[in-house]
């Protein structure tokens, strides 16, 4: 069964921050499928929802960002390898707010959650969906930037980005990764040209 792993930090303090936008996507997918809330799973150190109607597992690691790979390792030790059947969702400070970038593989780009997943897998060869949260004022401001909330002006844009990210995952499930990349990466590039 395909698995979608959303990167974020646990706790109410981080729930509405830029760094947790991937969790918003998983929450929306769970809501669309009628699973009102993801359930806490101590074994996998994660919040978890199994959505049979969509043949999908949603996994939110309850470790902090830089230890996200632990949840994936625990999942694989219990259920077997997820190679070729999973997707990582993360925030991206190098993309405009709400923009999407889907890739079949790639580097972490310095994202500690993705680095932890790469270490757990022993490879960079896994698909990822990145959601833009806007650039920081500089390298020194990066840590505080990702732990900030979105401005009132940014909220409608990021909410639309979250909706499109959930749509992209549903396209991946029904039509495959290439179709999702073609449809949603093209849409982002077109919108970027218009702004």
Give the key terms:
alpha/beta, disordered C terminus, 18% strand, single chain, Rossmann fold, seven-stranded mixed sheet
Structural domain tally: 1
State mean pLDDT (0 to 100 scale). 86
Please count the beta strands (DSSP E, at least 2 residues each). 7
**Unreliable sequence segments:** 189-195
**Beta-strand fraction estimate:** 15-25%
CATH superfamily: Peptidyl-tRNA hydrolase
What name does the CATH topology carry?
Answer: Rossmann fold
Q: What Rg do the Cα atoms give?
A: 15 Å
What does the main sheet amount to? 7 strands, mixed
Shape: globular
How many alpha or pi helices?
6
Helix content: 25-40%
**H-E string:** EHEEEHEEHEHHH
Quaternary structure annotation: single chain
Report the top-level CATH class. Answer: Alpha Beta
Taking the alpha carbons of the first and last residues, their distance comes to 39 Å
Going by CATH, the architecture would be 3-Layer(aba) Sandwich
For the largest sheet, list the strands in their spatial order.
2-3-4-1-5-7-6
Report what the structure shows.
By secondary structure, this protein is an alpha/beta fold. It has a single domain, classed as 3-Layer(aba) Sandwich (Rossmann fold). The chain is 39% helix and 18% strand. A seven-stranded mixed sheet has the order 2-3-4-1-5-7-6, sandwiched between helices. It is globular and about 40 Å long. The chain starts with a strand and ends with a helix. Residues 189-195 have low confidence and may be disordered.
